[in-house]
Specification:
globular, Serine Threonine Protein Phosphatase 5, Tetratricopeptide repeat, disordered N terminus, mainly alpha, 261 residues, 14 helices
C-alpha cells in the first residue's frame, strides 16, 4: 500500500512538472493573420471595390475619388490603404504610395496580399532586401491562396539583381504551386534561352501561349528561340504576328537591331 501511495504521489509530481513545462513554453506565433479570422466588415469596402473597378477601366481620377472616400469613411481599413497605394504608384507618386503601403502593413502585418504588393513596390524602388522580406512574409502565411504570385514576383526581383539561379528557383516553385501561371512560364522560357536550353525554352513558351494571349515580348522571344533552333518558318510566323499585332512595340526596334548584326 505504501508503495502504491508513493507511486501516486510521484505520478502527481511528474504531471505537475509537465504542466509547468508546457505553460512556460512560448506560444507559437499564428502566421495566418486576418485570413484565419472572420473578416472585419467596413463601410469603406464598397468604395474600395468601386475604386478598383474604375482603375481597371483606366479612369484614375474617379478611382482616386472613391478610394479617398473609403479612407474618409474608415482610415483603419488596410485594403483601402493598399489599393490607393497601388494607384498612387501607377500615377508616379512613389512617396505617397510608400506611406500608404506602410500604413496598410501596420494595420494588417500578416496579410499576404499587402506584403506581396509592398514587396513589389520595394523591388521597383531598388530596395531588394526589403522586398525579399515582404515576399517571405507573404509566403509564410499558410492560408495565402495564391503563393505562386509572390514566388514569381520574388523571382522577378532577384533577377533584377543578376541572380538568375535564385530567380529560376522561385519560378520553379511558382510553377509547382500552379503549373498554369503564365508569368512564371514566360520567365522560365527567357531564362532557358539565356542558358542555351533552346528546346526547353520553346516548351515553356508554348505552354505560355496556351495559357495567355501572345504579347510583344513573347512573340519577340519566339523569334529568337526559333532562329536559334533553325526553324525559319516558325520564326517568320512569330515575326509576322509581332508586326501585325504590335507595330509600335519596343520589341520591333529590337528585331530591327538584331537583323542588322
Amino acid at each position: 500500500m505504501k508503495s502504491f501511495a508513493g507511486y501516486k504521489r510521484l505520478s502527481a509530481m511528474l504531471l505537475m512538472v509537465l504542466l509547468i513545462g508546457c505553460s512556460s513554453q512560448e506560444k507559437v506565433a499564428d502566421t495566418t493573420g486576418n485570413l484565419g479570422l472572420e473578416k472585419r466588415t467596413s463601410p469603406a469596402k464598397i468604395y474600395v471595390e468601386m475604386g478598383m473597378a474604375y482603375m481597371r477601366d483606366g479612369q484614375s481620377a474617379i478611382a482616386m475619388q472613391k478610394l479617398k472616400k473609403a479612407l474618409d469613411v474608415d482610415d483603419e481599413f488596410s485594403e483601402a490603404h493598399n489599393v490607393i497605394a497601388i494607384l498612387y504608384e501607377q500615377l508616379g507618386e512613389g512617396d505617397r504610395a510608400g506611406k500608404h503601403y506602410d500604413r496598410a502593413v501596420a494595420l494588417d502585418e500578416r496579410d499576404p496580399f499587402i506584403r506581396n504588393a509592398r514587396g513589389s513596390y520595394y523591388c521597383r524602388r531598388g530596395k531588394f532586401e526589403e522586398a525579399d522580406l515582404d515576399f517571405q512574409r507573404a509566403l509564410s502565411n499558410p492560408l495565402y491562396p495564391t503563393p505562386w504570385v509572390a514566388l514569381t514576383n520574388a523571382g522577378l526581383c532577384v533577377e533584377r539583381t543578376g541572380d538568375n539561379a535564385k530567380a529560376e528557383n522561385f519560378y520553379r516553385r511558382a510553377l509547382t504551386a500552379n503549373p498554369k501561371y503564365a508569368t512564371a512560364l514566360f520567365q522560365m522560357a527567357k531564362i532557358s534561352l539565356q542558358q542555351q536550353k533552346d528546346l526547353t525554352a520553346r516548351a515553356y513558351l508554348e505552354r505560355f501561349h496556351s495559357k495567355s494571349k501572345p504579347t510583344a515580348a513573347s512573340l519577340w522571344l519566339g523569334v529568337q528561340i526559333e532562329k536559334r533552333m533553325g526553324d525559319r518558318t516558325k520564326a517568320a510566323e512569330y515575326k509576322h504576328n509581332l508586326f501585325k499585332d504590335f507595330p509600335d512595340a519596343p520589341e520591333i526596334q529590337s528585331l530591327y537591331e538584331a537583323e542588322k548584326r
